[in-house]
Amino acid sequence: MVVPMSIVAFDTLAFSKRLQEVGVPLVQADAQAQAQADFLTHHLLAEVSTKDDFKQLQSDFKQLQSDFKQLQSDFKQLQSDFKQLQSDFKQLQSDFKQLQSEMNLLATKEELKRFTTKDDLELMGKTLTIRLGAIVVVAIGVLATIIKL
């Protein structure tokens, strides 16, 4: 950072003369004046900001604002993507439950198919015929008994 000397006006000659007026020898007064000027230039003025420093800070700040806006935009996009992923996951869960239900239904149908082969149907038909015949015989026996009474 370059600091113009016009920021602080330090008159080394006036400082040296003032020291001489109070009894400080000329060589010592000039040395102290120069030391004071060096101190001001190197230490105090090193902390002074210039217009260029402020312009650089403004530029940096604008860049930070732009970066922050980009981060906000990226974050909003991430939020949107995350919500979409959640929705997709819920849909997958629903599809999985539907698939499970359909598989259970298919398994039940397969079990029914196993018990309803042609031979099973013929056996069930014969069994029903025998039962029906037994019911008819019992009914005739009950009617005969009622008629005899």
What does this entry look like structurally?
By secondary structure, this protein is mainly α. It is rod-shaped, with a radius of gyration of 54 Å. 84% of the residues lie in helices and 0% in strands. It starts with 11 loop residues before the first helix and ends with a helix. The chain is built from four helices and no strands.
Could you provide a short overview of the structure?
By secondary structure, the chain is mostly helical. 84% of the residues lie in helices and 0% in strands.
Q: Round the mean pLDDT to the nearest integer and report it.
A: 82
Residue share in helices? over 70%
Q: Helical stretch count?
A: 4
Sheet bearing the most strands, described? none
Q: Which structural class best describes the helix and strand composition?
A: mainly alpha
Topology, please?
Blueprint: H1 12-21, H2 26-44, H3 51-115, H4 118-148
Helix pairs in contact: 1-2
Comma- or semicolon-separated keywords:
149 residues; mainly alpha; 4 helices; 84% helix; 0% strand; disordered N terminus
